[in-house]
Each structure stands twice: as structure tokens, then as C-alpha cells.
Amino acid sequence: MLDQINATCDQLVADAREALAGAATEAEVLGFGMTLFLASLTMIVGATFAAYGIIWFRNRADWEGAVTGDEVLGLVGATVLLVVADIAAMRAFKKASDRTSAYKLTLVTLVAALAYIVMQSISWAPLLAQADPDGDGELRMEGFLFLMLTFAHAAHVLGGVVANAVVLTRSRGSKGPARGALQLLYQYWRFLTVMWVVVLGLLLA
Q1: What are the DSSP calls for 69-114, one per residue?
Q2: Stretches in the chain below the pLDDT threshold 50
């Protein structure tokens, strides 16, 4: 009886694998992989946001805020650049059939993302000084949390820059980026933009 059950289960697994292999395209498999990747990032980011909220709640009476006027302007500029990168990635995906336009838009995404990293780097210098106002090597909690969140986000943006560069390099000798690659880039940049909006809201609250 047990052998029969095992044999039935093995056959079901084999049938399922065969069905999936025949039904799923490469783009669908890559899309599913990206979904899992973004889901795992969401959990990590969510835990970071929760930690930020807990620390803020415990120190809300003495909370001085992480940014002031000049820093806010820099963050707004960085936000605009990230939105530009996101929109360009979206339009590149929608124009996937026009390989030349898709290539140019993917290049716009890359340039805007690089400009975002540069602008964030410029903003970090005064914030580092603000985080350690006494120069004794001890960071204010507000400054530390700001740098933690923005560094983490910038690291993911840098990962997107690398991905864009790889797609552009591989498509240079062909007619343009593949639709599947453009879809993955679009999903990733949309995720980063949404994540940044949340980060910005927390920091300005």
C-alpha cells in the first residue's frame, strides 16, 4: 500500500514538472523569480522600517529630526531623479518592440540613477557632520538612522545601475534590449521608487 502511494506521488510530481515545463516561458520564470526577490527585499525593508518606528517612538520626546532645510532640498532633487529613472524604465518596457527607443530609455534610466547616487553622496557629507555634532565619534540616533536607511537604499540603487549597465552592454551589438530584461528592470525600479517614497516619508515625519 505504501509503495503504491509513493508511486502515485512520484507520478504526480513528474506530471506537474512536465506541465510546468511546457506552460512556463522564460519570461514567466524570470518574472516569478523577480517577484520572489522583491518579496524578500520587502520583508527586510519592512523590518528596518519597523525598527526605525520603534526607536522613534521610544525617543519621540527628544527627537530632533534627521534633516533640515538644505538637506530636504537635496532629498527632493534625488527623489526627482529616481522618479525619472522609474518612468524611463517603464517607458522602455512599454516600447520594447521599438528596440532603439527602448535602448535610449534604458540609458536614461542608468544616467538618472547615477545622478541620484551622486546627489545622495553630496547630501551625506553635511549629514555626517550633523550626526556627530560634537566631533567625538558618537552619532546622534537620528543621524545614524537616516544614514542607515539612505545608505541601504543607495546600495540597492547601485545594484540597479549594474543591472542596467549589463542589459545595455549585452544589447549593444543586437537590435536592443530584450522585452524580458526590460520588464525586470521596470519592476525593480518601480520597487525602489516606492521604497524611497516610504523612506522619505519616515525621515521627514
Answers
A1: HHHHHHHHHHHHHHHHHHHHHHHHHHTTTSHHHHHHHHHHHHHHHH
A2: 1-2, 4-6, 8, 12-13, 16, 19
Rg of the chain over CA atoms, in angstroms?
Answer: 22
Cell output for 32: 516569478
Please give the grid coordinates belonging to residue 109: 534610466
How big is the CA angle at 105 (ends 87 and 199), to the nearest 5 degrees?
35
* Stated pTM of the model: 0.75
Coil vs helix vs strand at 139: coil
Catalogue the long-range contacts made by 139-143 (C-beta closer than 8 Å, 24 or more residues apart).
Answer: 140/64, 141/55, 141/59, 142/63, 142/64, 142/65, 142/66, 143/66
Alpha-carbon gap, residue 48 to 44, rounded angstroms: 6
The three cell numbers locating residue 203: 525621515
Contact predicate 39/87, CB 8 Å = no
Contact (CB, 8 A) for 66 and 142: yes
